[in-house]
Amino acid sequence: MLRTITIGSCVSVQGLLIGQLADGKVMVRVDEKTFVGYPIPSKRAA
């Protein structure tokens, strides 16, 4: 499943969901790299 996270005030990364951490952060993988950051909430159409 693809997830988008923020890893800075202006930087976001989209990749495959690897796991969740206890502090609310999410790990995603892009190619050979793993990034950790806060998930961006998904918006649902009404």
UniProtKB/TrEMBL annotation:
This is Translation initiation factor 2. It comes from the Bacteria.
